[in-house]
Design a protein that fits this description.
Elements lengths: L1 H18 L3 H13 L3 H16 L2 H25 L5 H20 L6 H29 L5 H33 L6 H23 L19 H20 L2 H9 L3 H9 L2 H14 L5 H22 L2 H37 L3 H29 L2 H16 L2 H34 L1
InterPro entries: MFS (IPR011701), MFS_trans_sf (IPR036259)
Pfam families: MFS_1 (PF07690)
Keywords: Membrane, Transmembrane, Transmembrane helix
Length: 439
């Protein structure tokens, strides 16, 4: 009995720590935890559905490219809509729109370039409303000192759902195919998965309204010139975007080509996943801002190793190693990257006296340029060289370019420290004459 109490004591203590956080932060985390069950379906199985239906990797890449085109466009629209609508309503709309987009995709009789492109753009619009408002709310409900914990807990759940959801959905699709459920139609099976996605988005939309979040105070958010420090962060955003384009495209194609069906996709995602999730939570809970560069470096090195193994072996075993490395890399990268981004927004927005949403909006274009380059590279290589060459070597090129993020992120962090020290000194100097006058 004592042993059981000791086992339960730690989770109870961690939940108590969570309850100590500001209410707005807890509501936002709870919303994102529910939506975390939706993202793996969108990121993995929509690509697998297109691959199964078209057997053309270029259409999968086109879909992702139109998704990524829809995101910055919707960031722009969202910035104007924030003048008239509550941010929580726009956030909810983005989550609901992702389910609607999936329904439209599954309803296409033939996966033409036009139909896939339209569905992809609509999915990008849903992501735009979701990420634009999520990033602003995360910035407003956290501080630099608790952002490691915030993103650690968030990525803990994202990693768990990235393991659990592919296993469950993969099992369901595989069982439906083997047993002839729904008349043996895989399209109907995917539609059943989409129904569950819509229910989850409705639930997440209800939870986010448990707190009244504030909209940005300033209306203007469109600028073309920024501080040098922000321009350097945009370079880091471009590198991040470059790898994002591959992480939602290459794994599904590799697994369908070299491993098997969607059931295998879910099984591979589940291997060693529980250990990864727990490790990520502990990293977020125990580390401080000074550890972010080390976390970023570890993630990038792991990802580079996975791409090298995949390129050299190019077999089912190589794909398994690559996907496992991807499962480790992505959350490690996010735990380090997002707090660095938020820190820079804190100091630069104070320095330039601008609306924080202006930087969130501009940041998305840095990501988009990277995504466009990454996916464009894949499409060009697959079209004019070969699909095999694109899957084997372009990933390695992207991973090696990603290593540039390490020295760049370190430089950006040091510059942000200097900016903050300068602001503190300036405030002190401004207060001295007033203090002397009062004396």
């Amino acid at each position: 009995m004592k042993g059981l109490f000791n086992i339960l004591e730690k989770p109870v203590r961690e939940f108590a720590f969570f309850k100590e956080q500001p209410k707005a932060m807890r509501v936002l985390l709870s919303t994102n935890m529910i939506y975390a069950f939706v993202l793996p379906v969108i990121e993995i199985f929509v690509g697998a559905y297109i691959m199964r239906s078209s057997d053309d990797p270029k259409i999968v890449a086109l879909y992702q490219l139109t998704v990524y085109t829809g995101i910055p466009f919707t960031f722009l629209v969202n910035g104007y809509l924030l003048r008239w609508f509550r941010i929580s309503n726009l956030y909810s709309f983005g989550m609901l729109l992702s389910g609607i987009s999936m329904f439209l995709m599954m309803g296409l009789e033939t996966l033409s370039f036009t139909g896939v492109g339209a569905a992809g753009f609509l999915m990008g619009a849903s992501f735009g409303f979701f990420w634009a408002n999520r990033d602003y709310l995360a910035l407003g409900t956290t501080k630099d000192q608790n952002r490691n914990y915030y993103y650690g807990l968030e990525t803990f759940f994202y990693t768990l759902t990235a393991i659990i959801v592919p296993l469950l959905v993969g099992w369901f699709l595989g069982a439906a195919n083997r047993n002839g459920w729904f008349g043996g139609s895989m399209s109907v099976s995917y539609q059943m998965v989409t129904v569950v996605v819509v229910i989850l988005t409705i639930l997440a939309s209800v939870v986010v309204h448990r707190d009244r979040f504030k909209n940005p105070e300033q209306n203007r958010f469109l600028y073309f010139r920024f501080d040098k420090l922000w321009n350097k962060l945009m370079g880091l955003a471009g590198l991040k975007g470059m790898v994002q384009g591959y992480l939602v495209t290459a794994p599904a194609i590799l697994i369908m080509r070299l491993v098997g069906d969607e059931g295998s996709l879910g099984l591979i995602q589940g291997v060693s996943g529980a250990f990864t999730a727990i490790m990520l939570y502990l990293i977020g809970r125990m580390t401080k801002p000074k550890h972010r560069i080390a976390i970023l470096s570890a993630g990038l090195i792991i990802f580079t190793f996975g791409t090298l193994v995949n390129g050299l072996m190019f077999s089912s075993v190589g794909v398994m190693v690559f996907v496992l490395c991807k499962v480790l890399f992505q959350p490690l990268h996010d735990i380090a990257y997002f707090p660095i981004q938020m820190r820079v927004i804190d100091v630069v927005s104070a320095r330039e006296k601008r609306n924080e949403f202006a930087y969130i909006f501009n940041h998305e274009f840095g990501l988009y340029l990277g995504r466009f380059f990454g996916l464009g590279l894949f499409i060009v290589l697959a079209t004019y060289v070969s699909e095999t060459f694109a899957l084997k070597y372009s990933l390695i090129v992207v991973a090696l370019l990603q290593l540039l993020s390490i020295p760049l992120a370190k430089h950006i962090t040091n510059q942000a420290d200097l900016y903050e020290q300068f602001e503190v000194k300036t405030e002190v100097q401004e207060e001295i004459p007033l203090a002397v006058a009062i004396k």
